[in-house]
Amino acid sequence: MKGVLNKDQIAALGIAGGWTMGLPDFVRYGDLDTYNHVNNKVYHAWFENIRVLYVRSLGVDFEASMEIKPVVRSASIIFNAPMFQDEEYITLCRISRLGRTSFTIDYAVWVAGVLRVTGDSVMVMVNADASAAVPVPDNLREIMITHDGAKTE
Amino acid sequence: MKGVLNKDQIAALGIAGGWTMGLPDFVRYGDLDTYNHVNNKVYHAWFENIRVLYVRSLGVDFEASMEIKPVVRSASIIFNAPMFQDEEYITLCRISRLGRTSFTIDYAVWVAGVLRVTGDSVMVMVNADASAAVPVPDNLREIMITHDGAKTE
Amino acid sequence: MKGVLNKDQIAALGIAGGWTMGLPDFVRYGDLDTYNHVNNKVYHAWFENIRVLYVRSLGVDFEASMEIKPVVRSASIIFNAPMFQDEEYITLCRISRLGRTSFTIDYAVWVAGVLRVTGDSVMVMVNADASAAVPVPDNLREIMITHDGAKTE
Amino acid sequence: MKGVLNKDQIAALGIAGGWTMGLPDFVRYGDLDTYNHVNNKVYHAWFENIRVLYVRSLGVDFEASMEIKPVVRSASIIFNAPMFQDEEYITLCRISRLGRTSFTIDYAVWVAGVLRVTGDSVMVMVNADASAAVPVPDNLREIMITHDGAKTE
User: Fold this and answer.
1) Is the pLDDT of residue B10 over 70?
2) Which end of chain D has the least Cβ crowding within 10 Å, N or C?
């Protein structure tokens, strides 16, 4: 996508942490709630959007009928500081942990050198009807380890 | 805002219609619904976002307590063709009609030369507690007529 | 669905207009925007939710792959008065107009005897890949005319 | 609010766990995503909606200008099983932990005896401009301990 940043472009901006995808944007009116700041739910939307972009960029198809696909098992988020209309930010992600059938994606919202919000989600690879966990395929393991620097267990 | 297009930049892209603000973006996962296309409600969000940006750019403050502020009285939308994940588009707006206490904003979603969705909203200027309509201030009338080419009644 | 009102139940509440489905609810925090009132987009969500319930209740399947399905061609909405947190309301709908390949659904948000917001959407019946309009099936025409009182053209 | 369940009503339904507020509802079309199941973000909306209702029921005012107000510091969520259109559910909450300036709210989505999704959020009491944490007022501590059974630290 136009505007999406890769690992090298993120590092060139002086953003530490080995993030492997970045999506620059600015806060819209529709992101705000009654406090005039970005609503908590909106960060989950930003994280979901970049997760789908990133996992697809690894060659994973999110079609519901796929034989192997990742699903979100759990998620957590920390709100360090609020965000306001017009603020420019970069949503960041990287795969930080790799298990046999699961992996963890870390997220952050970066504004002028500060991480306003951070989070992560644990993804589990499942079969077509999501009835069983399946091993992360070897080609994905390779990328997660070498490109993302994911820690194996 | 970074990336927001003005009237001249829009015209330079060959987009006809005298649009006075454009906001380029691409379709995110969160914009989709069960049909795998952009949900109808999302276009209203795009129109709202650019409306707030544009009306603020005219010097109008949207704070609830303002003595004079615009509120949406009605809106309409036409869905010409669906949109899908990753598609790049430009949301466009301009003020097309100017009455004594109201004005109409036109909207469109432009994708590679075609308007996928068009719409408009009728805005009414009201007093602080929204109990009465008030005339559009002269300085705004001037901009709407000369910059946006709004038709007066 | 539990709580969904039919035509007789709506009439028994003294709500005029021949509405054929009603969905009672109350305003949640997430419906509000920076003005502390229900955001304009939220009414579109309410209308969409009841439309899907109602059209499904007529036996129409919304699966993307269906041979005949309704799509939204256009929509309009009028905001008569704002709504606030905790307010109890009933979203209403009925099919008001029936053409050869299209029909119109009217919507309203009723609060204690007053319609705060009204709207409608023009639906077109299309074939599986939405490449052509197709006639509204006879069994649906029958219901729309006799149960909803839709005006034919 | 009509339909909101209190602690005794929840227990009377056989729902274990000491939940102190319950909000029954059913899945709407707008809750779904491309998988035809409830989107992950929607659970955060349900949790936010019941949190605001519950904390307000304790006498806490959420106005941005209040001298003491709770803000969300962090949140986590576990997705046990997906949810689908029309499913009836009850969103539940209770205050499970009480610190000096913070407290934890637990959430769950209950469907026919099973918790499909669980989560929690850590709330911090802050001063008017959110520049400093302040102690949870004694009258709230009392309710959290006696009514919610919150564990103190």
Assistant:
1) yes
2) C
User: Can you tell me the mean pLDDT for C10-20?
Assistant: 97
As given in the structure block, the two tokens for residue A38 are: 């970005």
Q: Report residue C15 CA to chain centroid gap.
A: 16
Q: Give the residue from B20, B59, B23, B32 showing the smallest Cα distance to B147.
A: B20
Q: pLDDT of B38-71, one tens digit each?
A: 999 999 999 999 999 999 998 877 665 678 889 9
- Phi–psi pair at C77, nearest 5 degrees: -150, 145
User: What number is the ipTM of this complex?
Assistant: 0.94
Span D60-97, pLDDT tens digits = 776 656 788 899 999 999 999 999 999 999 999 999 99
A125: part of which helix (H) or strand (E)? strand A114-126
> A73 to chain D nearest CA, in Å?
5
Residue C61 has a CB neighbour count (10 Å cut-off) of: 12
User: Residues of C near D (CB-CB distance < 8 A)?
Assistant: 1-3, 24, 26, 28-30, 45, 48-49, 52-53, 86, 88
In the block, which residue shows the tokens 């919202």?
A109
Superfamily holding B5-152:
Hotdog Thioesterase (3.10.129.10)
* C45, closest residue in chain D (CA to CA): D30
Q: Which chains does chain A touch, 3 or more C-beta pairs < 8 A? A: B, C, D
CB distance C91 to C98 below 8 Å? no
Give the tens place of pLDDT for each residue, A49-104. Answer: 999 999 999 887 766 567 888 999 999 999 999 999 999 999 999 999 999 999 99
Q: What is the pLDDT of residue C143?
A: 95
Rounded average pLDDT per 10-residue block, chain D, 153 residues? 92 97 98 96 98 91 75 97 97 98 98 98 92 93 96 92
Give, to the nearest 10 degrees, the angle between helix A40-57 and helix D40-57. 170
Q: Which residues of C touch D45 (CB under 8 A)?
A: 30
Model confidence pTM above 0.90: yes
- Distance, in angstroms, between C114 CA and closest chain A CA? 25
Q: In terms of CA atoms, which chain D residue is nearest residue A65?
A: D35
Quote the CA–CA distance of D46 and D79 in Å, as a whole number: 14
Residue A40, both tokens? 């908590």
- pLDDT value at position A63? 66
Query: Using CA of residue B25, residue B28, residue B31, residue B33, what is the dihedral sign?
Result: positive
Q: How far apart are CA A77 and CA A94, in angstroms?
A: 15
The dihedral sign for the CA sequence C26, C29, C33, C37: positive
CA angle C59, C90, C107 (to 5 degrees): 60
Where do the DSSP E strands lie in chain B?
A: 5-6, 21-26, 69-79, 88-98, 102-111, 114-126, 151-152
pLDDT of C63 > 70? The answer is no
Tokens, residue C47? 């209308």
Q: Between helices C40-57 and B40-57, what is the axis angle to 10°?
A: 170
Token readout for B35 is 């049909």
